[in-house]
Amino acid sequence: MFTVISNVSIFLCLVLFIRKTELAPTFTDTPPSPFYVLEGNNITFVWQYNLDGTFDRLVFRFVSSSPSRIIVFKHDINLDALVPNSFYMGRIQKNINATRAEITIFALQRSESGGYSVDLTDSTFDLASDRVTVQVQYPPEFNNVSSDAVVVEDGEPAPKITWTKVYTHGIDSVVLGTGNQFVLETNRNNSGTYRCTTYNGIGTASNRTVKVEVNCKI
């Protein structure tokens, strides 16, 4: 037995499929990704979108934590959006309507680098999603200086580290080495003060000095 499908039925199914695709929620403008921000500064995300029907909900999350953290939740276009996580209380400014969402996080910290996502649904329960990678930038820091070691805590972006020798008149030599390790030969001529300088383009260059004494047998 054969089933006959009319051209009219095929046409109607095709029209419905195309219409459904065209009317799904779509973002017309999204934040940059990666999105760079200096530590301690505010960051503002802006999305613009078209909806099929009416607004249903918007959920904004930090997805690089386990479990992910909901930052902003809005379910009713006529009610204010919620900030359900206490970590963000007092740090969020939001303005969300049927065509645009603007969310600001105040005083971003380096631990908040990572992925952020927004999920938008309309009254037909169609979903549109966008993901933004945030990179919080900060200068490198010295977290340990001793007589035989200088420890640099990496900044973001990764810093350039240089080593020079400080002469008695206060002038530095040319760069003698780069990177986290600087190895000297055991030679009495290498005694003296050495400077470690680190810089990644954020703020000003930082430096620390370490004194080296090479003791030789008499």
From TrEMBL:
It is found in: Membrane. One of its GO terms (cellular component) is plasma membrane. Keywords: Disulfide bond, Glycoprotein, Immunoglobulin domain, Membrane, Signal. One of its GO terms (molecular function) is cell adhesion molecule binding. Residues 1-23 form the signal peptide. It comes from the Eukaryota. Its main location: membrane. It is a single-pass type I membrane protein. GO terms for biological process: cell-cell adhesion. InterPro entries: Cell_adhesion_signaling (IPR051275), Ig-like_dom_sf (IPR036179), Ig-like_fold (IPR013783). PANTHER family: MAM DOMAIN-CONTAINING GLYCOSYLPHOSPHATIDYLINOSITOL ANCHOR PROTEIN 1, NEPHRIN. This is Ig-like domain-containing protein. The lineage of its organism: Eukaryota, Metazoa, Cnidaria, Anthozoa, Hexacorallia.
